[in-house]
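Researcher: Structure for this, please.
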Amino acid sequence: MTNLINSQNSPKISIIGKNSTNLANALGISPVELESADGAIFIVSATDGIVTADINAWRNARELYIPSIVVINDLTVSDIDFEDMTAIATKMLDPVSTPYLVLHGDDGAPAALIHLESLTISDYSDGTLSTRPADPEHIALVEEFREEYIEQVEAAGEDAFAAGLIFPALAWVESSGIGLEQIREYLDLIPSLG
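Model: Predicted structure, token format:
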């Protein structure tokens, strides 16, 4: 897959929410205003929740059919976990899909992501990204979430994200880089409109 965010024909991305500058820098993109964007990232803080201005921007993005990603951050400093925040985002914005779930290390901190479709684990526990097949206990743990996710995607259609009809919720842990590769994968699916 070509990495469109680093090409000349890359889509214009708007980033809305807390730590938007940090995420833009981590992704290596220069954000644009929502009205001129090909795609949008809405950052939802696990500590601060979703503010009214971001809800209004979300509604504007829906009216414009802008493909949008919900990025949940502040997961290391909050008692609210990724699954709880996706439920809150679903209630306050629109139903979100969760292509990846967060796996925690022995210390309780986010350490890896499990991809619900391929059942592979993106492990960040040693400070670098490594990918491996999920263990049987992880597969059993996410089975119900996987079925729900696959049903959502099948019902929405293959190009639903690019059409602005399905909204992936992805975790981002700034200190370890958890989620950056997954965010990039979704940004690569957004067509540049010029």
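Researcher: Any notable elements?
Model: The first helix runs from residue 20 to 27. The chain is about 30% helix and 20% strand.
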